[in-house]
Automatic annotation (TrEMBL):
This is Putative pterin-4-alpha-carbinolamine dehydratase. It comes from Gemmobacter nanjingensis. Keywords: Lyase. It catalyses: (4aS,6R)-4a-hydroxy-L-erythro-5,6,7,8-tetrahydrobiopterin = (6R)-L-erythro-6,7-dihydrobiopterin + H2O. Pfam families: Pterin_4a. Belongs to the pterin-4-alpha-carbinolamine dehydratase family. It is an enzyme of class 4 (lyase). Gene3D superfamilies: Transcriptional coactivator/pterin dehydratase. The keyword Acyltransferase does not apply. Its EC number is 4.2.1.96. The keyword Lyase applies.
Length: 122
């Protein structure tokens, strides 16, 4: 069974609160993206492990990248070709799981990881 895309009413209700937490639209796609900066690799990996369990429970999996302390997440539902309620649920859960991690804004380019910004680290 196909997952339905978010209705216009659902978008108007669900997306603004996510945007306030740092999720941003992905240009050219019906998707949202957020980048977190954790204190270190272990903290980033712990977040990804907890998020993976949440994703499994929803049977909905993120597109994500990890570079040392950075976790870059894009959410979209391939089944419906855009955003669905699954993305909203997973984004909200990831926000809770990320705790006090810093949020990177202006997702126009690759975000440098801590090892690239602190000489001798990595």
């Amino acid at each position: 069974m196909s997952t339905p895309p978010l209705s216009e009413d659902a978008r108007a209700t669900a997306l603004p609160p996510l945007m306030e937490t740092g999720w941003q639209p992905v240009p050219g796609r019906d998707a949202i993206r957020k980048i977190w900066r954790f204190k270190g690799f272990s903290e980033a990996w712990g977040f990804m492990s907890r998020a993976a369990l949440a994703a499994e429970r929803l049977n909905h999996h993120p597109e994500w990248l990890n570079a040392f302390n950075i976790v870059d997440v894009t959410l979209t539902t391939h089944d419906c070709g855009g955003l669905s309620d699954l993305d909203v649920k997973l984004a909200s859960r990831m926000d809770k799981l990320a705790g006090a991690a810093a949020v990177e804004h202006g997702h126009t380019s690759r975000t440098a990881c801590l090892c690239e910004t602190r000489p001798g680290q990595g």
